[in-house]
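Lab meeting, item 3. Inverse folding demo.
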């Protein structure tokens, strides 16, 4: 259809520019070309009616399409009758009146559709501007020239209807543009507005006796009328149909440029009247133009108020969104394809600190763990859809590592964002709990093994201890053999106590927590000579007294220096606040803890001090193979304290002094 319309237009313009055709062929060529264009316009309007979702719009397009057909039929009949010198038949006026009625009714059906969210005040100001503007323009360019005729040249009812229909349809088209929200109808209304405006001017010329001559340059104006109607029908056909309850029907009111066009046209009419006065009309043009200007000023004031309200609403929404983002738990970073951050949310800065290197190309990689950086860089480097999920370790400004679950979404094609969005959820605690659960499962399996091993060792040591006691009864007291057997007996006693503690730890079930004072608890475990040196012994902790007691006994027994009986320990109790990620106790949550520090004083047996043991760190700083670096007693004791939110640490000084440190969560007083 588009190609055919363009081809017809080019052919018609070329025919006019070539000077027309012989007088005998010109009417036939003119009628043929106009018939093709008019039939195409009417057919497209009928098709637009079939596509319309609303019954009112459907009947409006049907009436306009039939009116096009009637106009083309009456025009062809008028050309044929006047070409043969015959008077127009009486029914031709009836056809003209019917066609005018269909055009007006069709546009009225369009205009009668109600807006759901139209701003009433601004809508009525625009409607008043359009009504006055159309009245001024149509009066000056069509009605006034048509009525300014010589006496005796009166026209019939059909002629008056034709003249008034053009002006009325132009007004209805302008109101249609203001009343409707869907873009297809609005564009079609603008095209119909120009079409009916030109049509009214041409009808006015015919009142002055300007005859229609096939092939004349004036026929270009009629061609423009039909071409605009064809374009309006095409826009209606190609535009998406409007649903009565859809978002287009409820779109906010938008007046567009039509009121300004009529204001400019009215001003032009005033200038032309002042330059070429026709008498008696200046005052009316001045009043009308002044009224239009006042309406425009009032409309601008209303729009300024609406813009101020809209600005306040936007500021409120932005403040609401900012409050959500600033106080949310998730981190948000906007970055380009080069990994440089264009936006960093306050939550991100609060969790990771302010790192200026983020804004540099691939600056994010400086904070990501080297093992995780390649995966993140690969996602960010993708040219297409970079949506995906991954887990990365990110270093904060204070040096701590945070584990983040990242969601990367590529929104570079979205004009509202234009960047890759990284949403990060801090799962450091979840990762730590998962690691603890995994370690607990390993320790549980180790406890089963330790239980069986300790049971067998206990049987063996019990048998050896019994034989040593029987041998002691048969040797003189104070002899060398008696001293050797006594040393063996002390070692057997120590081994038996250790295996019994391991059995108690490995067979332990759900902890029975109770609140106890640290000083009273240490006094109840006074074996091997505990020397209290406490500045905070009255602090209270919530523990399983039996389980922690067995853990402390087992560790102190195994960590005692010397080859003889366990020597005394100096115990110091202090209180300390820990923060998550402290090097001193990386496994501890933030809070106040009772720190029980046990330092060996010496060996009761006077033997040489054992070779210093390796320092035992906490949590992730533990040796890679704990089974070889730590005894079963230490591993099980560590598991017991971890279940209660505490921790255990062992290390040796350069002089061979052993240190055992327990961290227990303090109770609030």
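The presenter then showed the designed sequence:
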């Amino acid at each position: 259809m588009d190609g055919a319309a363009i081809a017809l237009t080019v052919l018609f313009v070329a025919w006019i520019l070539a000077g027309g055709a012989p007088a005998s062929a010109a009417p036939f060529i003119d009628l043929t070309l106009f018939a093709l264009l008019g039939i195409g316009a009417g057919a497209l309007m009928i098709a637009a009616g079939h596509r319309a979702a609303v019954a009112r719009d459907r009947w409006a397009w049907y009436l306009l399409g039939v009116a096009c057909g009637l106009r083309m039929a009456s025009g062809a009949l008028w050309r044929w009758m006047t070409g043969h010198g015959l008077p127009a038949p009486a029914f031709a006026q009836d056809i003209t009146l019917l066609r005018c009625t269909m055009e007006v009714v069709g546009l009225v059906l369009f205009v009668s559709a109600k807006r759901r969210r139209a701003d009433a005040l601004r809508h009525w100001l625009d409607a008043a501007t359009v009504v006055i503007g159309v009245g001024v323009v149509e009066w000056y360019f069509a009605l006034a020239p048509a009525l300014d005729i010589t006496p005796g040249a009166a026209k019939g009812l059909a002629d008056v209807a034709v003249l008034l229909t053009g002006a009325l349809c132009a007004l209805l088209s302008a109101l249609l543009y203001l009343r409707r929200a869907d873009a297809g109808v609005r564009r079609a209304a603008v095209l119909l507005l120009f079409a009916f405006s030109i049509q009214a001017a041409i009808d006015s010329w015919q009142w002055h006796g300007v005859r229609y001559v096939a092939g004349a340059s004036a026929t270009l104006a009629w061609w423009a009328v039909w071409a605009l109607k064809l374009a309006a029908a095409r826009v209606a056909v190609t535009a998406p149909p409007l649903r009565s309850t859809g978002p287009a029907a409820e779109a906010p009111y938008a007046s567009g440029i039509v009121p300004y066009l009529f204001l400019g046209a009215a001003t032009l009419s005033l200038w032309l009247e002042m330059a070429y006065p026709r008498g008696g009309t200046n005052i009316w043009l001045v009043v009308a133009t002044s009224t239009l200007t006042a309406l425009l000023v009032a409309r601008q004031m209303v729009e300024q108020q609406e813009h101020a309200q809209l600005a306040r609403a936007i500021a409120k929404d932005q403040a609401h969104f900012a409050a959500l983002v600033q106080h949310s738990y998730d981190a948000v970073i906007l970055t380009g394809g080069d990994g440089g951050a264009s936006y960093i949310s306050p939550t991100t800065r609060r969790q990771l600190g302010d790192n200026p290197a983020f804004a540099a190309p691939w600056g994010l990689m400086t904070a990501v763990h080297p093992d995780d950086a390649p995966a993140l860089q690969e996602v960010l480097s993708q040219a297409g859809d970079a949506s995906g999920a991954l887990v990365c370790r990110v270093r904060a400004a204070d040096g701590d590592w945070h584990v983040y679950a990242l969601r990367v979404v590529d929104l570079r094609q979205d004009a509202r964002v234009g960047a890759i969005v990284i949403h990060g959820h801090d799962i450091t605690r979840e990762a730590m709990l998962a690691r603890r659960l995994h370690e607990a499962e390993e320790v549980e399996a180790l406890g089963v093994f330790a239980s069986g091993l300790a049971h067998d060792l206990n049987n063996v040591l019990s048998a050896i201890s019994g034989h040593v006691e029987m041998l002691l009864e048969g040797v003189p007291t104070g002899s060398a053999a008696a001293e050797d057997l006594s040393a063996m007996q002390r070692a057997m006693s120590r081994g038996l106590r250790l295996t019994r503690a391991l059995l108690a730890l490995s067979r332990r079930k759900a902890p029975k927590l109770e609140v106890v004072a640290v000083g009273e608890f240490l006094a109840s475990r006074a074996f091997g000579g505990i020397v209290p040196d406490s500045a905070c012994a009255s602090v209270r902790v919530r523990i399983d007294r039996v389980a922690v007691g067995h853990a402390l006994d087992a560790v102190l027994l195994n960590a005692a220096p010397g080859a003889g009986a366990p020597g005394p320990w100096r115990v110091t109790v202090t209180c300390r606040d820990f923060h998550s990620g402290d090097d001193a106790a990386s496994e501890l949550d933030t809070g106040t803890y009772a720190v029980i520090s046990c330092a060996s004083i010496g060996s009761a047996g006077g033997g040489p001090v054992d070779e210093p043991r390796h320092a035992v760190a906490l949590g992730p700083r533990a040796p890679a193979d704990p089974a070889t670096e730590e005894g079963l007693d230490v591993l099980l004791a560590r598991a017991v304290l971890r279940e209660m939110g505490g921790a255990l640490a062992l290390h040796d000084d350069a002089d061979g002094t052993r240190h055992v440190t327990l961290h227990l969560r303090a109770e609030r007083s």
